[in-house]
Amino acid sequence: MKNKYSIFSLFKNAFSHHENWEKAWKDPEPKKEYEAIIIGGGGHGLATAYYLAKKHNMKNIAVVEKGWIGGGNTGRNTTIIRSNYLWDASAGLYDHALKIWEGLSQELNYNIMFSQRGVMNLAHNLQDVRDLKRRTHANRLNGIDAVYLSTEEVKKFCPIINTSQDIRYPVLGGTLQRRAGTARHDAVAWGYARGADKMGVDIIQNCEVKGIKRNGDSVEGLETTKGFIKTKKIGVVAAGHSSVIANMAGLKLPLESKPLQALVSEPVKPIIDTVVMSNAVHAYVSQSDKGELVIGAGTDDYISYTQKGSHEIVEGTLKAILELYPIFSRMRMLRQWGGIVDICPDASPIISKTSIRGLYFNCGWGTGGFKATPGSGDLFAHTIANDEPHKLNASFNLNRFVSGDLVDEHGAAAVAH
Amino acid sequence: MFLINCPYCGERDQSEFKAGGEAHIIRPKQPTELSDDEWAEYLFMRKNIKGIQFERWNHAHGCRKWFNIIRDTSNDEIKTVYKMGESPPKL
């Protein structure tokens, strides 16, 4: 049984110079067989394991991760959380996640530094204005807080924005979701890992999946770098590498994996206390608690697994940032990195059963999966445990690409692709 | 970020080109006779390979011609370039 983190445990451990803190999770070798195995130890995978153990009483389960937990896209995103999506299905999905975020630090007994600092989306042309107004109305009909702001109100909410009407893409207005914000991404992975481990989930790092063993239409187990592991249920949460795992099982997915970049500046004093996103000029910015500006760029248009991305994408993003925030003109960028995102043709995720019994996929989150982490884990756990989707993820099945019942969220995805 | 050897213009920066996705996906000859599953396969399902992939590219800011590339998507290394209509060379 793990000790609860509290002011008292902090005080107690101070006496031993903080050298005797218990490990937050064990580092076990895989057992021969599990009730279910999750492939991918990122936020979504760990959350899935956590909710399988907590809500569905499946304790004999494992998460296998080829690297270290949270070392993929969970540690590479820009930590933005919001739920202002257009369609009913998406609104249900993302707001379900946002509601869990609101109590997650308490639930996990782990400070995930969730900060509801608001997310503002800017409009730069007449079509943007119409789209964002429509989205605001749609959000409110779905019970999601959203307001439309005039140019003056945008300036008031974030005074450093250049609202001059003389710039190439002037700010004509924007939307604001006040319940939206950011969270510490690493802490989300660590918090879920600690919570899952506490309930008996094996988190197996440095264990790469090499093959999926099938018996006709059912799965039998996994070939991994740590040997064969038997299981009847496999949940794949491998983000950019989803297609690689699907190919092992002889499946094809409607995904393309592309590099998405982000960068941070040198740390400075607090200057921007919200998150501002712009779809049209394609730049989004917030400030981390360390003081770095966290800037998101776009995806490259070619398939790549290199975690790099092109220089001109960064250049384009910084041009847009400088036009909107001339005050940042002398900031120096410290680090730049890429993550491989799995993009669906309709910019919506897949949380679904497949044609193979016992094989489930949670993928296609593309450029915006972090915000959905808790909801995605909860709904995927439900899908795996009951072998059927929850009503909130029923629309996000694989069959929608056959039936044509797509959930087109390109407008709300915020990263143009 | 890499260079692409356009078969018509020579070596240029990748930023001049537009990626056109997986190559050699053949448009159905009898679209009216396709089932929903076959349409889904043609329109949406992709190999999305990590490794050697055959893909189409367009020299959008140059000659604007389409051509094919064989590229390793795990390290962005281009193996070979060949024109549209040509069958892919053996590696």
Topology (SSEs and partners):
The complex is a heterodimer of chains A (417) and B (91).
Chain A: H1 7-14, E1 33-34, E2 36-39, H2 43-55, E3 61-64, E4 80-81, H3 88-102, H4 104-108, E5 119-123, H5 126-141, E6 147-149, H6 151-157, E7 173-177, E8 181-182, H7 185-198, E9 202-204, E10 209-215, E11 218-224, E12 227-231, E13 234-236, H8 242-248, E14 256-265, E15 275-278, E16 283-287, E17 293-299, H9 311-324, E18 333-343, E19 350-353, E20 359-363, H10 373-386, H11 400-403
Parallel strand pairs in A: 1-12, 2-3, 2-13, 3-9, 5-15, 13-20
Antiparallel strand pairs in A: 4-8, 5-7, 6-7, 10-11, 11-12, 14-17, 14-18, 15-16, 16-17, 19-20
Helix pairs in contact in A: 2-7, 2-10, 3-10
Chain B: E1 3-6, E2 10-13, E3 18-22, H1 36-43, E4 52-58, E5 66-72, E6 77-83
Antiparallel strand pairs in B: 1-2, 3-4, 4-5, 5-6
Description:
The complex is a heterodimer of chains A (417) and B (91). With 417 residues, chain A is α/β, with parallel strands linked by helices. Chain A has helices at 7-14, 43-55, 88-102, 104-108, 126-141, 151-157, 185-198, 242-248, 311-324, 373-386, 400-403, and strands spanning 33-34, 36-39, 61-64, 80-81, 119-123, 147-149, 173-177, 181-182, 202-204, 209-215, 218-224, 227-231, 234-236, 256-265, 275-278, 283-287, 293-299, 333-343, 350-353, 359-363. The longest helix of chain A is centred in the first third of the chain and has 16 residues, at 126-141. Chain A starts with 6 loop residues before the first helix and ends in a 14-residue tail after the last helix. Chain B has a single domain, classed as 2-Layer Sandwich (Folate-binding fold), CATH 3.30.2270.10. Chain B has one helix at residues 36-43, and strands at residues 3-6, 10-13, 18-22, 52-58, 66-72, 77-83. A four-stranded antiparallel β-sheet of chain B has the order 3-4-5-6, with no helix packed on it. A two-stranded antiparallel sheet of chain B has the order 1-2. In chain B, 19% of the residues are buried. At the A-B interface, α8 and α11 of A face β3, α1 and β4 of B.
